[in-house]
Amino acid sequence: MKLKLLFAIILLSTVNAFSQTNFQPGYIIQTNGTRVNCLIKNEDWKGSPTSFIYKLEENGDTKIGNLNNVVAFGAAESYKYINATVQIDQSTDNVDKLSYSRNPELKEEKLFLKVLVEGKASLYYTQVNNTPRYFYSKDQGDMEQLIYKRFLVTKLKMGKNERFKQ
Questions:
Q1: Is 38 left (phi over 0), alpha (psi -120 to 50) or beta?
Q2: How far apart are CA 62 and CA 64, in angstroms?
Q3: Cα separation of 50 and 43, whole Å?
Q4: Better-scored residue on pLDDT, 45 or 124
Q5: Which of 24, 69, 117, 135 could form a disulfide with 124 if both were Cys (CB 3.0 to 4.6 A apart)?
Q6: Is this prediction's pTM over 0.85?
């Protein structure tokens, strides 16, 4: 009897955990500069989301924010993402797929960057191919990537481009 009761409690608590959607109070800044308070579905993004779900009121319809209609979005003190067009390194950090080139493989991309530190000098984060990428800007200027790239010198020797230290 106790086993059946324990099983029922575990089953009900698991169903409840999977059925919840977590909308947090937050804001979006639209491309026209308008700030809109809303509820944002927190999906605990690992890298940069290309879109996110939000609603204007608790029982309202859900809407999708993306790179074309949102400049920035965030939730109180939890997180903040900004829309940016940056040169980002496409190199992999997978040891089996390293190249012999010391230079980063830069490609221009438009994406949401997570704001880590904001001030006179700001630090941003994203993730590409399971590899963390960091960017910085000074005095609201252009964003630059902090370059760190592993590469092959020979088949058995690996080198590092640690330009971020400069």
A1: beta
A2: 7
A3: 12
A4: 124
A5: 135
A6: no
pLDDT band per the 50, 70, 90 thresholds, residue 31? very high
Distance between CA atoms of residues 124 and 145, nearest Å: 9
In the chain, at which residue ranges do the beta strands (DSSP E only) sit?
23-30, 35-41, 51-55, 62-66, 70-75, 79-89, 106-117, 121-128, 131-138, 144-146, 149-152, 158-161
Q: Which of 127, 122, 125 is nearest to 142 (CA)?
A: 122
In order of 115, 142, 147, the CA distances from 77 in angstroms are 11, 25, 28
Angle at the Cα of 106 (from 118 to 93), degrees rounded to 5?
Answer: 85
DSSP code at position 153: S
In Å, how far are 26, 86, 101, 136 from 106, measured between CA atoms?
Answer: 33, 9, 12, 16
